[in-house]
């Protein structure tokens, strides 16, 4: 299948690589022309130098997947593509946009007959080889057409040991906005789980500074009820950085999705104390020297390649 990608950073670039491995025809564009050309030479994707060239290169009906930072960069890209595309074409926002932005975008594109899909995408820097979990919102027709791309990006196998129900790593969860809403809540849960692991490892270290936390994390992956990918990444972080994580500053950033989750919870009168406490703990990390914040920083770096502050 033919598809275009706009935005070739860590996630976008790896998604192009995975699609090319599966034999899909990918047209690639990034404002960084050197990055665009390099990815084209590496993967066989067709590099273009502008959105106009991208649209002209595609066969109708066109599918354009946008992977740029949320907010103004995404909005301006969707607006520009909307002016260039035709009836039957589709724009996919696979980034971490706020879900409330999706319905107005879909409504703005509807008079031209251009479909809009929002795809909440999880998998981080590991998605290239492990596949991506994708939460899809948008019209049935456009989702059905995109299915071969979603199938190629999704994990190839289901881990029976995780008691997973279903046989694919993507799901059409509802109309425009629902994909990003489900992904937003996913990220809010992620905040809470990470905070629990960080606090637990901090307590273990306080009780016994000589305890090998990498071994503990590996142990918990063997049949324990708290086994998880995040805990496995904690083991990896302890091995890479040392149990003390002394090379990391205890500074934990947030992408904004935890805040949006709490705002939605307030709107719906749903108590989310664990997610709220986890977000506030991140605020508290900035300027404080605590071990739990080092664990959180290390975990964000492990699953998403997010930048960490290195200690002097």
Can you characterise this structure?
With 312 residues, the chain is an alpha/beta fold. It has 13 helices and eight strands. The chain has helices at residues 10-21, 33-43, 51-57, 72-84, 102-109, 127-130, 140-153, 178-207, 213-220, 229-241, 257-268, 273-285, 291-304, and strands spanning 2-6, 25-29, 46-47, 63-66, 90-93, 115-122, 133-137, 170-174. It has an eight-stranded mixed beta sheet, with helices on both faces. Helix 4 links the parallel strand 4 (63-66) and strand 5 (90-93). It starts with a strand and ends in an 8-residue tail after the last helix. The relative contact order is 0.10.
Which strand order does the major sheet show? 3-2-1-4-5-6-7-8
Number of helices: 13
The total of beta strands comes to 8
Shape: globular
**What structural class do the secondary elements suggest?**
alpha/beta
Residue-averaged pLDDT: 92
Secondary-structure map with pairings?
Layout: E1 2-6, H1 10-21, E2 25-29, H2 33-43, E3 46-47, H3 51-57, E4 63-66, H4 72-84, E5 90-93, H5 102-109, E6 115-122, H6 127-130, E7 133-137, H7 140-153, E8 170-174, H8 178-207, H9 213-220, H10 229-241, H11 257-268, H12 273-285, H13 291-304
Parallel strand pairs: 1-2, 1-4, 2-3, 4-5, 5-6, 7-8
Antiparallel strand pairs: 6-7
Helix pairs in contact: 8-11, 8-12, 8-13, 9-10, 10-13
């Amino acid at each position: 299948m033919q598809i275009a990608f706009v935005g070739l950073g860590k996630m976008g670039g790896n998604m192009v690589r995975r699609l090319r491995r599966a034999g899909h025809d990918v047209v690639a564009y990034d404002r960084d022309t050197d990055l665009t050309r390099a990815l084209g030479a590496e993967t066989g994707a067709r590099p273009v130098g502008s959105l106009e060239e991208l649209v002209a290169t595609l066969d109708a009906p066109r599918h354009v997947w946008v992977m740029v930072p949320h907010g103004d960069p995404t909005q301006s890209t969707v607006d520009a593509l909307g002016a260039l595309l035709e009836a039957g074409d589709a724009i996919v926002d696979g980034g971490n946009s706020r879900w409330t932005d999706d319905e107005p975008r879909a409504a703005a594109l509807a008079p031209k007959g251009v479909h809009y899909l929002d795809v909440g995408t999880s998998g981080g820097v590991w998605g290239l080889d492990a596949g991506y979990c994708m939460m899809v919102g948008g019209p049935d027709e456009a989702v059905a057409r995109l299915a071969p791309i979603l199938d190629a990006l999704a994990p190839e196998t289901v881990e029976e040991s995780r008691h997973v129900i279903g046989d694919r790593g993507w799901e059409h969860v509802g109309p425009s906005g629902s994909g990003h809403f489900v992904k937003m809540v996913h990220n809010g849960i992620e905040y809470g789980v990470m905070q629990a692991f960080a606090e637990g490892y901090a307590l273990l270290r306080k009780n016994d500074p000589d305890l090998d936390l990498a071994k503990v994390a590996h142990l918990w992956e063997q049949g324990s009820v708290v086994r998880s990918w995040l805990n496995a990444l904690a083991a990896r972080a302890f091995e890479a950085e040392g149990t003390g994580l002394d090379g990391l500053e205890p500074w934990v950033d947030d992408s904004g999705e935890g805040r949006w989750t709490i705002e939605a919870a307030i709107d719906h009168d749903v108590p989310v104390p664990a997610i709220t406490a986890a977000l506030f703990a991140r605020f508290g990390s900035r300027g404080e020297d605590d071990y739990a914040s080092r664990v959180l920083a290390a975990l964000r770096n492990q699953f998403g390649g997010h930048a960490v502050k290195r200690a002097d």
